[in-house]
Amino acid sequence: MAENTKRSMIEEEYDEEELKRELRHKRRVKNQVIAYIVTGILVVGILVGAAFGASRLITAVNDKKHAQELQAQLEELQETEEPVVIEAPEPTTEPVVEEEKSYLDEIVDACIEEMPLEDKVAGLFIITPEALTDTDVAVRAGDATKEKLGQYAVGGLIYFEQNMKSKDQLTEMISNTKSYSKYPLFLSVDEEGGSVSRIAKAGLADNVGTMKEIGDTKDTAKAKEAGNTIAGYLTGYGFNLNFAPVADVAMDGNETIGDRSFGNNAGETATMVAASVEGMQEGGVSVCLKHFPGLGSSNEDTHAGMASTEKTLEDYETTDFLSFQSGIDAGAEFVMVSHLSVPNITGDNTPSSVSDKMVTEILRGQLGFEGVIVTDAMNMAAITDYYTSDEAAIKALQAGADVILMPEDFETAYNGVLEAVNNGTLSEERINESLRRIYRVKYKDKVQE
Question: What amino acid positions are annotated as catalytic residues?
Answer without folding.
Answer: 303, 376
